[in-house]
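Case study 2.
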Amino acid sequence: MLFHTFDGRLMMILHRPFENARGKLYEMALHGHELQVLRRRDDLDGGG
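Prediction:
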């Protein structure tokens, strides 16, 4: 799922359908029609 944070950053979360699994968050950028992954955000998803 793609979403914007309250401060306007574009983010993507990948949900994993396994027991006790957490989603993974990625900071994204949109350049025209190209979607780019900037970095994985372990500091926000509880996995780091």
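Residues 2-45 form one domain.
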